[in-house]
Amino acid sequence: MADLDIHNLTDRYVAVWNEPDADRRRAAIRELWSADAVHVLQPPQELRQSAEGLGFDRLVLEARGHRALEFRVTRAHEEFVAPGTFVFRSRGNADRLHDVVKFNWEMAPRDGSEGAGVGLEILTLGPDGRIVSDYQFIEG
Fold first, then answer.
1. Do the beta carbons of residue 26 and residue 70 sit within 8 Å?
2. pTM for this structure?
């Protein structure tokens, strides 16, 4: 894993959320994440309060394994990218310390104007370079 290109990894990570083809999206998920990987989302405070008000607990904010990851990525694509309004893109600031990679991404209008949302991703990689833990903080 010493020769892992983290910019390639983060570009592929962001690309999967933009991928319109379900089969290519499914294949990319299996290439990026290990079979039992976990994706944990910390949404903005107002969304957390809404979820708590509806009786949802932290399990709603975790996706474990390829099927759950595929559902999460597909759902985000359908809501934000497929209508043609937004695109996800890396901010190009990936950094790595041993098996941990961090980077920021943004959800921006497809027309290229200012970003509509920003997130921080912290990934823990397995020995094969695939993601085993994925912590997503929606920052705004």
1. yes
2. 0.86
